[in-house]
Amino acid sequence: MKILLAKDAGYCFGVRDAVNLAHQTAKEEGEVFMLGDIVHNENVVKELEESGVKVVKNLDEVPDNKPILFRAHGTVPDIWKESNERAMDVVDATCPLVIEIHEEVKKLDSEDRKIIIIGDHGHDEVNGIKEQVKDALVVSSSKEAMKLRKMKKAGVVSQSTQRIENVQAIINILMTKVFDLRFVNTICFPTRRNHEQIKNLSEICDIMIVIGSFTSANSKRLTELAKMRNERTFQVTSAEDLDIDWFQKSDTVGISAGASTPDSIINQVLDGIKSIGKITEEELVYE
Ligand code: SF4
Description:
By secondary structure, the protein is an alpha/beta fold. It folds into 3 domains: 2-10 and 190-286, 3-Layer(aba) Sandwich (Cobalt-precorrin-4 Transmethylase, domain 1), CATH 3.40.1010; 13-95, 3-Layer(aba) Sandwich (Rossmann fold), CATH 3.40.50; 97-187, Cobalt-precorrin-4 Transmethylase, domain 1, CATH 3.40.1010. The chain is built from 10 helices and 13 strands. The protein has helices at residues 13-29, 42-50, 77-85, 96-110, 124-130, 142-146, 164-175, 189-204, 217-229, 263-276, and strands at residues 2-6, 32-35, 53-56, 68-70, 90-92, 114-118, 137-139, 151-158, 178-183, 207-211, 233-236, 252-257, 284-286. The two termini are 19 Å apart.
């Protein structure tokens, strides 16, 4: 059996930097607080908790003189304002690519365009983008786009982790509804690269394993992309989820992992697969 591991499987640089910053701040300050989980991965959250990174529901729960960390996928302006007014010690881990989306959306708004965000309703990153301007709309699917009324001027951005196919389908519909439409493709480059790699891998491998939490939209999207091309696609959260039967009659196993999956879990799953099948070649990295 041969293993092909997607070169950029796992943490994107935005998440990696945020997790490192959380660990470093906890080490220096004893504790650091966050509004919600830093990544959608239960194992990472547990590990962070053990090192002093605590999750709170609102700013009132942060003890005096303790730092609050703003996560990679952005924070709504009201929370920024409130924390500044209270002179809180803010550690900003917002990904620079998310900040770019905020800037783009403000530019489109200054051109008097109705703002449309292609993304998942209720997702923290989408909420952060939406709150940069007044009355932005969130559209998650073609079905929702079909229901929109006709409009004169609109500006469209997307959540950084969207599938390009979903964005294209929605833009095609918006072209029939909006007279003056401007679209800025804000799918981030780590997402584009990961999606390309998993699409190619799923076509050349007998079986695909996607490592990631089922609470991570990003991991679920990787699984969807692989499943569309390879029926024998399985998503696992850890090595314990691996099933020996999946690997029967499989010469080539392709592996990728969501942007919130840490290297330690990827390595555990790799070891698990190696112990199931006889590895005929060194594990190869797929670019
Ligand atoms: S998915 Fe992209 S935009 Fe989001 S944190 Fe990672 S690099 Fe930044």
